[in-house]
Sequence to fold (289 residues):
Amino acid sequence: MRSLFSLSRRPWLFSFLILFFWFICNILVIIALSLILRLEDQTQVQAPWPTLLANILMVFIVAPFVLGFPGKGHTYRQYLSEIRLTKMRPLLGLILLGLSCYLIIALSQAAGVLVYRLMEGLPVDGSFIRRSFVLANELPPRSNCWLISLTSIPEEILWRGVVLASFLRVYDQRKSIIFSALIFGALHIFNVLNGLPPIWVIGNIVGAAITGLFYGYVTLKTDSLLPAMIVHYLANLFVATINAYVQANASASAAAVYGVLFTFGIIPTILMILWTRFFTTHWPSIQRL
Fold:
């Protein structure tokens, strides 16, 4: 394959250029959509299209043809295989692992809400639980979050597929997981552009980096992107409803702390890694790491 650069053996430079081009692609997609749709204001371009299309461009065009991944002498099919996009077996086991890991992160998020409620000195009863965790609020016809959350899928292909694979060419698996998770956390610094409080953005960066450890681990443990895709999609789909009480009542600093502990952070990451290790041990055809 031919490309403008050849960065397949320089993962840090490659990763920072991925961040740069990802940001540029988002801007270009917004401009293009505003022109195509004849919108007077570019802010009228609705989610998830800019991020979704930018991620797709990064995976299928920018990374292989501009930034030189997978490198000279490799075919496009080999590129797709190396980033694990075409590895989906055993399908049932991978789906069950993804769904069970999501259940862990959902219960962790719900536990964080209950802990915060108790810390306020307020009761946790059936009425509170029924009011606080209405998952149907994120499903049609009440919401289009099912569509907005689709950005999680190409996001996994880019960060756990392309970026993680680039580090694996130079580093061992443990370092590759850590380094790619740090880059994934750095991606979330762009949330500051949405006008969010700095402390919340910092918490988001830290939480994303920690959760990225699980995404990288489960990807290498199963040699597939599918479980990470499932967890990431469902977690983004329902997090607003599950965590709504904390977001509505906690200060920005408290919400950041609870986010790092319960929402996307330490507790669910540890539990999901332990469960993945247990699950793959008892479903040996999945295990690759």
